[in-house]
Design brief:
With about 350 residues, this protein is an alpha/beta fold. It folds into two domains: about 230 residues, Aminopeptidase, CATH 3.40.630.10; about 80 residues, Beta Barrel (OB fold (Dihydrolipoamide Acetyltransferase, E2P)), CATH 2.40.50. The protein is about 20% helix and about 30% strand. It is built from eight helices and 18 strands. A ten-stranded mixed β-sheet has the order 1-2-3-5-4-6-9-7-8-10, with helices on both faces. It has a four-stranded antiparallel β-sheet with strand order 11-18-16-13, with no helix packed on it. Helix 1 crosses helix 7. The radius of gyration is 21 Å and the shape is globular.
């Protein structure tokens, strides 16, 4: 795919592997080059199956809404990272005779999904996903200053960023983007071989960005939030002009235990707070209405000063049953507390 937009936007292509039909998908690589010096920003999407927020956001970047003329630095877009998922969509259920038993099991029936975000930084010699992750690391991550990896989360999770709890530049960037909250992580609190944690280990400013979405669609509100967050990041990095509106961010530490708030009854649930909204002990987080007369039968109360990392039942519906978790509630931190 070769494409040229507004004279300073180019697209190139490359083939990752040749010996498996499932891996012969060409990864599109789109570059937007600024007219003056600045950082190189790598943005990636579709590392996970059906998490299409990345391509949806990048389409907004490329469809004429974004003016690249004032851009300082370069944007490198990897809209469709996972060749494995594309192969499954195309119906491949093939592995060659030399594939290891582990590789065969991963591809069995074309349905057993490999989590592509568990193999970074990869290895030059190893199984195919390790080689693939190695190529992404060597050719793109190491040549970038900033890495933003776009994902979809559950409908109840809100818009949040995850980053290393020890990388101050990543924390500062996340704080600028207008997210609902920021999830601080380390090797013991999250899978260590994710793209963003491994990128931060080689001193790249790196974030995993999560926006609500469902299966093969990304709702318009999530896409708009994600696009505006990307613009905020570029403003913070001084890649594009514009002022950021300062706003306090809520930080969670992933390794700290969360409290699950569970419903004991059937009913219709309505939240009274948003994800990341700070609460005091005794605040009402949400209410349960009786299905017979729609009167309030239960108020869910904040057990301590904190904030919700998720609010609502995990299936995304407002009708809940006994045993459903209606909120994940945690202690929160401010930026100053995090950077102490």
């Amino acid at each position: 795919m070769m494409e040229k937009l507004q004279e300073i936007l180019t697209s190139t292509k490359g083939i990752t592997h040749h010996h498996w039909p499932i891996l012969q998908h060409e990864i599109p690589v789109i570059t937007i080059s600024g007219t003056s010096d600045g950082p190189t920003l790598m943005i990636s999407g579709l590392l996970h199956q059906d998490e299409l927020i990345g391509p949806a956001v990048f389409d907004k970047l490329l469809n004429g809404q974004f003016n690249p003329k004032p851009l300082k630095g370069n944007i490198v877009i990897l809209p469709i990272v996972s060749t494995y998922q594309v192969g499954l969509w195309r119906g491949f259920e093939y592995f060659h005779d030399a594939a290891s038993a582990t590789e065969r099991e991963k591809l069995k029936g074309g349905k057993k999904i490999v989590n592509a975000n568990r193999f970074f930084p990869g290895k030059p010699e190893g199984e195919w996903m390790e080689k693939f992750s190695y190529e992404i690391t060597e050719n793109f991550i190491k040549n970038a200053d900033v890495v933003l990896d776009f994902h979809n989360c559950r409908l109840i999770d809100g818009c949040f960023a995850a980053c290393s709890n020890s990388h101050e530049e990543s924390i500062a960037l996340a704080n600028s983007m207008g997210m609902d909250f920021i999830d601080l992580q380390n090797d013991s609190s999250m899978f260590s071989q994710t793209m963003y944690l491994q990128a931060s280990k080689i001193n790249k400013t790196a974030l995993l960005l999560e926006f609500p979405g469902y299966q093969e669609q990304s709702c318009e509100s999530s896409t708009d939030r994600a696009y505006n967050s990307l613009l905020n990041a570029m403003k913070f990095l001084k890649m594009i002009p514009g002022e950021l509106k300062p706003q306090p961010s809520t930080f969670f530490k992933r390794e700290e235990k969360a409290e699950s708030i569970i419903s004991e009854d059937y009913g219709h649930f309505s939240s009274r707070v948003k994800n990341g909204q700070t609460c005091q002990k005794g605040d009402i987080l949400g209410v349960l209405r009786n299905l017979n007369d729609f009167t309030i039968s239960k108020k869910f109360i904040a057990p301590f000063s904190g904030a919700c990392a998720s609010i609502g039942p995990s299936n995304g519906y407002s009708i809940i049953k006994p045993g459903d978790e209606i909120a994940t509630y945690k202690k929160y931190y401010t930026l100053n507390e995090v950077l102490k």
